């Protein structure tokens, strides 16, 4: 969850970094679609979940074997060189070799120049020693942590776990009474997620991060208020709930879904990137668990409508956070992002 976007961010050309990291989200959603589809086919099969896990196992083995051929991140190699963890010239040559493996013939004769540029930028940014835990709470590291962890926190506490985990129940409340019907409706939901993620992949490096976040989160807020209205005032109009659910999913996959992971892979300085991403992933799953476990008790205490209104209010707060705190990183190298915004 944290190594994949970090690796992609460090190895991708800046012009298509957003597309490549968004493709990670696209294939996660594609896997969800396959899982929902297989699940809908096995819904009436006794112990059908075992077949789902059985099909997944060989895919994990193939992925594990394939990872043996992944070249190291050139930026990580050069960071090791600056930190004195090896002979500079030898590590420089290794970084050039890895960059050629990653970019292929398209890089031509520019690999050596690109490596020297990265090495020069890292030296100017004083990346010569490893950061301590204390440094994560100071200066530019704290600013990066505020941007990354704050975005991931809002990604979760705007209700994403509740809306998606309870999608089947929402479909049932909206008239898809049979469990099989609700499960098959979830397949359609996953297909929508896939389509909207594909749209994000296409436009993210053209429009930029901030426009997609501001537009998508505005749609999320609107959908949450619609869900709140359905459970409070409009219980006899199930189309409102279905429309709100589809709007939420579509807007989430245009904004928080891919861009949350993209931003946290871009914003941290190189020497704290691994630690920074680990902290934000911890925030992600901690907030995810909190929202998922708290939804049912809050629903019993306040009612589903009130809970969704609260999520909608948090979505409005997240818009304020995005507008004032989140920078635009489109087209910038990782070193330029650090120099300009941290």
TrEMBL record:
The chain crosses the membrane at residues 26-43, 49-70, 144-167, 187-205, 212-233, 239-264, 276-295, 301-326. Residues 1-330 form the Major facilitator superfamily (MFS) profile domain. It comes from the Eukaryota. It is found in: Membrane. PROSITE patterns: MFS, SUGAR_TRANSPORT_1. GO terms for cellular component: cytoplasm; membrane. One of its GO terms (biological process) is D-glucose transmembrane transport. Belongs to the major facilitator superfamily. Phosphate:H(+) symporter (TC 2.A.1.9) family. Belongs to the major facilitator superfamily. Sugar transporter (TC 2.A.1.1) family. This is Sugar transporter. It comes from Solanum tuberosum (Potato). The lineage of its organism: Eukaryota, Viridiplantae, Streptophyta, Embryophyta, Tracheophyta.
